[in-house]
Amino acid sequence: MRRARVYLVVFSVLVLFAEGCAVSTNPVSGRRRLYGYSWAEERRIGQEADRQIVAQYGLYDDPALAAYVDSLGQVILAHSHLRRSDTPKEFRETPFVFRVLDSPVVNAFALPGGYVYVTRGLLAHLNNEAQLAVVLGHEIGHVAARHASQRAFELQLGQVALLGGAVLGQEVLGLPGGDVLQLGGTVAQLLFLKYSRDDERESDRLGVEYAVRAGYDAAEAAAFFRSLKRLSEQSGASLPSFLSTHPDPGEREQTIRELAARWMQEVGLATRENQVVYYARIEGIVLGEDPRQGYVADGAFYHPTLRFWFPVPADFQVINQPSQVLLVEAEQQAVLVLTLASESSAAEAARAWAAQEGLTVLDRGSERVNGLPAVYVVAEGQTSEGQTVRVLRYFIEHEGRVYSLAGYTLAAQYARYRPVFLQVMRGFAPLRDPARLNVQPVVLAIRPAERTAPFRALLPALPEAFTPEAVAIMNQVELDAVVQAGTPLKLPQR
Ligand SMILES: [Zn+2]
What we know:
Helices cover 38% and strands 23% of the residues. A hairpin with a 2-residue loop joins strand 13 (360-369) and strand 14. It has helices spanning 39-57, 63-78, 89-92, 120-125, 129-144, 147-155, 157-160, 167-173, 185-192, 197-213, 221-235, 241-244, 249-267, 275-282, 346-354, 414-425, 434-437, 455-458, 468-474; strands spanning 22-25, 32-35, 97-101, 108-111, 115-119, 286-287, 295-297, 300-303, 308-311, 316-320, 325-329, 334-341, 360-369, 372-382, 388-398, 401-410, 429-430, 442-448, 453-454, 482-483, 488-493. The strands form six sheets. A seven-stranded antiparallel beta sheet has the order 10-11-12-16-15-14-13. The radius of gyration is 25 Å and the shape is globular. The site of zinc ion has 6 residues, from helix 5 and helix 10.
């Protein structure tokens, strides 16, 4: 949960597929074929899903970096099929948005209709502008070749994706559905829509072509794919989805080199690498989780920016998202959700919530929670599956904001979880401990190697949670590889 970003949890159902599939042009091949959506629909889907992506991940708060990534994206786009004079106007006139998401996960993805995302985790793992150019080109390639729309057509997503199931009942209760732990139904479908291997190969081809046309040494990207391979080996099961459907990074490393050589023959020599510019842009970027946006330590959740804390019960896992903090019980029998209410007082927020149709209020009252004005409501409602859910919800005023802490469980289980809910809600308190308040994230420092030595020997003492191997991967170098004196190194710094 982050300051000044108050998102309502909206379970939106996109009604986009009524028209069924569409015959239209592929901007890359110029041929007409069947798609899941028309281009206009793709643009609408992208726009709606973009809102959910931004709410889910948050934008990385560095306007200069965001402007840099967007302007590079626009340059690569200008060399893509979507901007050629013989491309139909509707494609040429579709604006693109390139965003930097505030996530430590190494990832890049695109939504239909012109939305491309890279994470700060990805930016930290790239070694120069040429590598970023290829990644952006790859994502532009997915949009240009309309891969999502092709796969959606094959899967007949239109029939399934938008029903959204339990939406209505959950909206009344404010209960996070299963998909809230991830993303709204359609976005999830689009993101986890598996592009085929051939789609990925086509996007690699297009990414290299666009980057070379823009003057970049696209062969540089090969080293990034090698480091992705190490990253996926290291992360084991938690392989980023971005990697899972892509061709083997080893294969890509090889083909990227071949493609770069081929396109340079066709288009002309492209040598731009721009490491100095790139490193100047990413220096200072946050590495790993940013504790200023909330962190768990010693059995409690601390939020230094919003200056509150509360105890985390044993057996509950904390999921900290920009719009909410979820505490999910191990057996998923109970969940606690912390959000910000849009009303200006606890009483008003409680009234507004309790007045909703479909809710039966069982109890309500006011009290002070660690000196803070609070109003609580106990209510019941039905899920769309016909189960009775009981909710204990506290609205607590703190420093001009109204926090909502809601505990959900089945009515039959309420007696069991009520004490746990109360432990959290009545434990909500202002954060005053300077050590907790002043916590700083680990950031990226760029330092020249002081001497010629194996990478391992050049590493300073690393902050907790950063292994030498992880830092080597970030630098696209083997731990035992000899690094020349003066080579800029990317190092985590507290
Ligand atoms: Zn891809």
